[in-house]
C-alpha cells in the first residue's frame, strides 16, 4: 500500500495521459478511486465462507464514497500528502456527485449498516437496485421547489465492478430481462473485512442487432431495451408513502428475485441439492416491506426449481427471513392490488395464495374466530395484498427501530400479531456510523476527543463516556465550544458559497434538516418562528439571542402540501430578511438540495437540533443521532429515538416538549383544532398568515390548502392530523428556554458536551452487533 501515491500517478498516465497537476477533478477522482480499489476484492463478501447476512434494501443512500474508503483503508494520510505536494485542496472531490440511491433515513440506515458490518467483522452484504438516476436534485425558483434529474453516473462509477458473467434471468408476465450485478466493496475501518454491495441493473436479453437495420427486428430490439432499462432507470422519490405503482412492483421483484437466485446458485456450489443447511448459511434481512416479495419468490424457486414441498420451503423461508418495520403510518404501509400483482408476477401470486391459506389454517388451529381472522388476512376482502402481514407471518423476526416504536408495534399497530407470536417481536434501535458522522465530518472534534481519551471510540463509541470526567472542566468545555464555533464558521462559508446568503456565525444555529413531511412538522417550526417574529416586533419577547433557523428538505415532487410548506418557509425567510426591525436577530435560511454531503457539513455546526415529529409518528430518526454525536442539544418531542437520547444524555441537557403518545391517545377522538385557533390570538395570528395576504403563493392555492388541512381536514386526514396547534405554545416555550440558556455559554456548551459524551449507544456498530446476536445468529 506504500505505493498508493505512485499508483495514482501511473493510472493518470495510462488512462488519461495526464499528470496530477494537469488532471481534471473527474480524472483525478477516478484515478485515486481506482488505485484504492486495487487493494481490495469487491466480491470478497459474497465469496466468503461461513454464514452470510444478505441485507435486501430498495435504497442505499451512500453519499460520497471516496473519503470514507480512503479513511477505512488507512490511505487518507497518503492521499492528503499527495494533494498537498501538488498544491491541491483535499476537498477537491466535493464536486463529485453523491450516490443518492435512496430517499432519506431508511436508505442512509442501510449505508451505515454496511459500514458497521464490515467494521465489526460481520459478513453483511447489501443487495439492491442500481438506479441510473438517484433522488432528484432540488433547487428553488421564487421560493418554490423545482426538480432536476440526478445523473450521478456522469462522474463515472470507479467504486463498482460490473460482473457480466454473473447476470441472472428475471421473468415477468410479458417480459424477460437480465439483472446484471455491479459490485462495490464495502471496506471496514482498518480494512480487516471487505464486504460486498451488489446492485442489480436491468438490461435486455439481446444486444442491439445492428445487422437488422430497416427490419422490424430492430424496432423490436429497441423496444425491449427501453422496457428493460426502465426497471432500474429511476428511484421513486416518495419517502414514507406507498405509491402502489406497477413499475415499483417490478423493481421490487427484480432485485429480490435476482438476489435470491444468486444466493441459491452460490449455495449450491458448496452444498449441491442438500438444502438442510440453507438457513445456517444465509440470513436475509428485509429492510421494510419493499423486498418482502422475496418470501413467496424463495418458496417458488424452491418448489419449482428444487422440487421441494411447500411445507419444507415455507419452513426454510421462515428460518431465513427477518423483517424490519420502519413505520406505523397507514399511508406508508405497502399493499398491492391483486389485479396489479397478477399482471406483473402471476407466477408469484400463486405462492402468496399458498402462504395466505397456511395462515388461515394456523389461525384456526389457534382458535381464532373467523371474524377475528380478518385482521390478519394477507389477501384481504378488498383484494389487497398486505406486505407487512406477509412478512410477519412468513419470517421468524419482526423488529422495530427504536424502543418506543417497537412498543407501539406490540401494543397497538401490530397488536394482534404480537398476541399470537410474541417471540417474533424485538427492538433494534437504529444507529449511525461514527466513521462518517464524526471522524470524517468533524475532524476538529475527532482530534479533540482523541486527544482527551484516545482514539478507540472510532470502533467503540461507548468510549465517549470517558469524556464525562471533563464535564465540569471549564477549559475543556471552552475548547469544545471553540470547535463548535469553527464548524459554524465553516458552515456559514459553505452556505455563502452554495446559497449566496450570509449568516452570522455568532447567531444560534437552530437546524431542522430531514425529508419534508407533514408528520415531521416543519410547518410547526415555521409557525414558531412567526410567533417569535411577532413577539419581537411587539416587544413581548425581550433579551432574545440572535438565531439563524436553518432548514434543508426535499419534498416528494407530487406532494403538494409539502411543497407548500417549503414555499411558506421561504416566504417567511424573505419577509424577515427585509425587515430591519428584526433582521439583526432573526434569520431563516432554506438550503437547497439537502443530501448526505450537505448533512456532513450541517450536523457538526448545530447548536439546536430540531426533532419535532408528532409523538408516535417518527419510528426512530437518525438525524437526531448525528446532531447529538456532534454536540447539539435536542429540541424535540418524546418520539422515536429522542426518547433514548434524553435517557442517555439527561432530560436536563435537552429540551423536550409537547404531547406524548399517551396524551394524543387520550385526546384524539375529541380533538378540535378550531377551539385552540379561536381561543388563542397568538396561534390564530400565525395560522392566519396562510390566508390573510401576509404571504403570496403566486396563486397556486398552496397556502389555503395548508390552512384547510389544519382547520377543516384534507384528503383522508382529520383537521390538524399532526397536532400542530396542540403543541405550538409548549414548543415556543421550549425554544425560548433554549434561547435563554444560550446566554450562559459555559452551561450551554456543557449540555452539548454531555450529549456527545453519551452518544455511544447510537453507533450503528451497536445496532449491527444486536442484529447479529439476536436475529442473524452470527456472533
Ligand atoms: C440522516 C439523514 C436523513 C434522516 O434524517 P431524519 O432526521 O432521521 O429524518 C435524511 N437524509 C439525509 C441526507 C441524511 O443524511
TrEMBL record:
Domain of life of the organism encoding this protein: Bacteria
Among InterPro entries, the record links this protein to:
Glycg_phsphrylas (IPR011833), Glyco_trans_35 (IPR000811), Pyridoxal_P_attach_site (IPR035090)
User: Which molecular-function annotations from GO does this UniProt entry contain?
Assistant: glycogen phosphorylase activity; pyridoxal phosphate binding
Keywords from the named record: Allosteric enzyme, Carbohydrate metabolism, Glycosyltransferase, Pyridoxal phosphate, Transferase
Q: Name one GO biological process term.
A: glycogen catabolic process
Give the family, as the similarity comment puts it: Belongs to the glycogen phosphorylase family.
Q: Which reaction does it catalyse?
A: [(1->4)-alpha-D-glucosyl](n) + phosphate = [(1->4)-alpha-D-glucosyl](n-1) + alpha-D-glucose 1-phosphate
The EC number(s) attached to this protein equal 2.4.1.1
Q: From which organism does this entry originate?
A: Anaerosporobacter mobilis DSM 15930
Q: Which Gene3D superfamilies match?
A: Glycogen Phosphorylase B
- Function noted in UniProt: Phosphorylase is an important allosteric enzyme in carbohydrate metabolism. Enzymes from different sources differ in their regulatory mechanisms and in their natural substrates. However, all known phosphorylases share catalytic and structural properties. Allosteric enzyme that catalyzes the rate-limiting step in glycogen catabolism, the phosphorolytic cleavage of glycogen to produce glucose-1-phosphate, and plays a central role in maintaining cellular and organismal glucose homeostasis.
Instruction: Identify the NCBIfam families for this entry.
Output: P_ylase (TIGR02093)
Transmembrane ranges?
Answer: none
N6-(pyridoxal phosphate)lysine PTM sites in chain numbering:
626
KW Glycosyltransferase (keyword) present: yes
Name-wise, this protein is Alpha-1,4 glucan phosphorylase
Quote the cellular component terms of the Gene Ontology held in the record: cytoplasm
Keyword Transferase in the entry? The reply is yes
Q: What's the cofactor?
A: pyridoxal 5'-phosphate
Amino acid at each position: 500500500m506504500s505505493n498508493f501515491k505512485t499508483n495514482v500517478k501511473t493510472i493518470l498516465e495510462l488512462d488519461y495521459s495526464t499528470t496530477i497537476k494537469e488532471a481534471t477533478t473527474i480524472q483525478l477522482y477516478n484515478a485515486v478511486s481506482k488505485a484504492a480499489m486495487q487493494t481490495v476484492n469487491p466480491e470478497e463478501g459474497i465469496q466468503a465462507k461461513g454464514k452470510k447476512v444478505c441485507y435486501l434494501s430498495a435504497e442505499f443512500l451512500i453519499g460520497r464514497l471516496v473519503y470514507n474508503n480512503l479513511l477505512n483503508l488507512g490511505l487518507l494520510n497518503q492521499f492528503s500528502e499527495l494533494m498537498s505536494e501538488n498544491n491541491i485542496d483535499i476537498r477537491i472531490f466535493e464536486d463529485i456527485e453523491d450516490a443518492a440511491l435512496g430517499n432519506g433515513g431508511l436508505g442512509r440506515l442501510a449505508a451505515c449498516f454496511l459500514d458497521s458490518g464490515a467494521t465489526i467483522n460481520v459478513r453483511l452484504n447489501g443487495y439492491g437496485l442500481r438506479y441510473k438516476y438517484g433522488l432528484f436534485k432540488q433547487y428553488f425558483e421564487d421560493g418554490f421547489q423545482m426538480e432536476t434529474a440526478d445523473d450521478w453516473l456522469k462522474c463515472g462509477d470507479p467504486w463498482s465492478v460490473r460482473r457480466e458473467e454473473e447476470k441472472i434471468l428475471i421473468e415477468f408476465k410479458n417480459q424477460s430481462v437480465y439483472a446484471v450485478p455491479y459490485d462495490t466493496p464495502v471496506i471496514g475501518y482498518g480494512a480487516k473485512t471487505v464486504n460486498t454491495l451488489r446492485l442489480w441493473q436491468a438490461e435486455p436479453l439481446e444486444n442491439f442487432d445492428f445487422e437488422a437495420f430497416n427490419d422490424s427486428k430492430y424496432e423490436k430490439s429497441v423496444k425491449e431495451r427501453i422496457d428493460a432499462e426502465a426497471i432500474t432507470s429511476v428511484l421513486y422519490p416518495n419517502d414514507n408513502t406507498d405509491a402502489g405503482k406497477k413499475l415499483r412492483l417490478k423493481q421490487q421483484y427484480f432485485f429480490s428475485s435476482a438476489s435470491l437466485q444468486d444466493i441459491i446458485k452460490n449455495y449450491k456450489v458448496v452444498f449441491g441439492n442438500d438444502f438442510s443447511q440453507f438457513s445456517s448459511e444465509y440470513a436475509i434481512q428485509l429492510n421494510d416491506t419493499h423486498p418482502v416479495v422475496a418470501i413467496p419468490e424463495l418458496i417458488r424457486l424452491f418448489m419449482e426449481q428444487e422440487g421441494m414441498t411447500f411445507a419444507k420451503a415455507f419452513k426454510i423461508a421462515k428460518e431465513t427471513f427477518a423483517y424490519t418495520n420502519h413505520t406505523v403510518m397507514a399511508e406508508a404501509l405497502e399493499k398491492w392490488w391483486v389485479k396489479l400483482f397478477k399482471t406483473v408476477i402471476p407466477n408469484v401470486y400463486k405462492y402468496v395464495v399458498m402462504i395466505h391459506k397456511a395462515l388461515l389454517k394456523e389461525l384456526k388451529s389457534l382458535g381464532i374466530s373467523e371474524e377475528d381472522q380478518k385482521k390478519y388476512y394477507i389477501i384481504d376482502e378488498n383484494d389487497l395484498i398486505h406486505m407487512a402481514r406477509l412478512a410477519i407471518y412468513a419470517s421468524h423476526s419482526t423488529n422495530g427501530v427504536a424502543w418506543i416504536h417497537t412498543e407501539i408495534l406490540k401494543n397497538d399497530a401490530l397488536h394482534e400479531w404480537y398476541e399470537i407470536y410474541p417471540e417474533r417481536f424485538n427492538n433494534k434501535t437504529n444507529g449511525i456510523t461514527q466513521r462518517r458522522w464524526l471522524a470524517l465530518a468533524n475532524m476538529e472534534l475527532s482530534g479533540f476527543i482523541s486527544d482527551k481519551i484516545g482514539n478507540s471510540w472510532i470502533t467503540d463509541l461507548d468510549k465517549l463516556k470517558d469524556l464525562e470526567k471533563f464535564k465540569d472542566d471549564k477549559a475543556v468545555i471552552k475548547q469544545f465550544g471553540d470547535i463548535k464555533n469553527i464548524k459554524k464558521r465553516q458552515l456559514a462559508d459553505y452556505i455563502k458559497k452554495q446559497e449566496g446568503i450570509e449568516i452570522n456565525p455568532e447567531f444560534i444555529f437552530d437546524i431542522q434538516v430531514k425529508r419534508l413531511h407533514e408528520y415531521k412538522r416543519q410547518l410547526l417550526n415555521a409557525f414558531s418562528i412567526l410567533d417569535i417574529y411577532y413577539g419581537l416586533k411587539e416587544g413581548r419577547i425581550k433579551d432574545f439571542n440572535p438565531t439563524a433557523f436553518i432548514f434543508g428538505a426535499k419534498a416528494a415532487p407530487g406532494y403538494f402540501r409539502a411543497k407548500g410548506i417549503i414555499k411558506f418557509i421561504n416566504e417567511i425567510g424573505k419577509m424577515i430578511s427585509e425587515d430591519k426591525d428584526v433582521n439583526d436577530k432573526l434569520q431563516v435560511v432554506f438550503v437547497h438540495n439537502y443530501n448526505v454531503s450537505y448533512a456532513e457539513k450541517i450536523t457538526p455546526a448545530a447548536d439546536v437540533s430540531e426533532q419535532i415529529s408528532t409523538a408516535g409518528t417518527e419510528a426512530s430518526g437518525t438525524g437526531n443521532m448525528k446532531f447529538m454525536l456532534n454536540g447539539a442539544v435536542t429540541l424535540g418531542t418524546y418520539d422515536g429515538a429522542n426518547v433514548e437520547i434524553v435517557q442517555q444524555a439527561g432530560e436536563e441537557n435537552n429540551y423536550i416538549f409537547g404531547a406524548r403518545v399517551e396524551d394524543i391517545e387520550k385526546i384524539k377522538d375529541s380533538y378540535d383544532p378550531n377551539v385552540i385557533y379561536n381561543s388563542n390570538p397568538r396561534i390564530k395570528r400565525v395560522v392566519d398568515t396562510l390566508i390573510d395576504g401576509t404571504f403570496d403563493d403566486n396563486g397556486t392555492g398552496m397556502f389555503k390548502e395548508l390552512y384547510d388541512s389544519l382547520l377543516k381536514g384534507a384528503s383522508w386526514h382529520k383537521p390538524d392530523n399532526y397536532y400542530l396547534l396542540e403543541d405550538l405554545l409548549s414548543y415556543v416555550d421550549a425554544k425560548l428556554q433554549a434561547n435563554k440558556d444560550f446566554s450562559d455559554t459555559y452551561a450551554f456548551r456543557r449540555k452539548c458536551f454531555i450529549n456527545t459524551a453519551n452518544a455511544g449507544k447510537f453507533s450503528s456498530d451497536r445496532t449491527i452487533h444486536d442484529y447479529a446476536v439476536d436475529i442473524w445468529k452470527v456472533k
